[in-house]
Design the sequence.
């Protein structure tokens, strides 16, 4: 494994760690639209009091950071652009299909969907789909060799 690939792995792992560590302070809305330092986020108090636009901007930013750092790990592990390209397709699927569903459910709060929102949050906002690609790519690589 080359030094460049180790760099991508270290970048991805440290990036995911920092996103997790500072998740309460990832206020992309304040940085991008108000030009001020991020504030501590507190979305758990009441869904009805959540401002829609800042919430969406912050969730999209966190989603992109998580997935881009995960793609860096995937590229570092496998060292082939085809795996990173496929991971980008998965990221776009999540960005344009799963994330809007999650945001709509979270902001609309339809009765009886609270557990679905919780599970969807874990799949969308955490890099679960990206991390599931790693064993899938290992399996595909192993099956191609035989």
Sequence:
């Amino acid at each position: 494994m080359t030094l460049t690939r180790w760099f991508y792995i270290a970048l991805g792992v440290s990036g995911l760690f920092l996103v997790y560590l500072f998740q309460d302070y990832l206020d992309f809305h304040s940085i991008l639209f108000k030009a001020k330092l991020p504030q501590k986020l507190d979305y758990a108090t009441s869904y009805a009091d959540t401002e829609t636009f800042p919430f969406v901007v912050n969730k999209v930013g966190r989603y992109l950071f998580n997935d881009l750092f995960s793609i860096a790990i995937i590229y570092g592990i496998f060292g082939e652009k085809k795996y990173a390209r496929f991971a980008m397709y998965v990221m776009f699927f999540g960005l344009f299909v799963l994330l809007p569903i999650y945001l709509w459910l979270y902001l609309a709060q339809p009765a009886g969907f609270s557990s679905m929102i919780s599970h969807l949050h874990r799949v969308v906002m955490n890099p679960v789909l990206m991390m599931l690609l790693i064993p899938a790519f290992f399996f595909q690589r192993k099956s191609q060799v035989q």
Remarks:
- Residues 81-108 form the longest helix (28 residues).
- DSSP finds six helices and no strands in the chain.
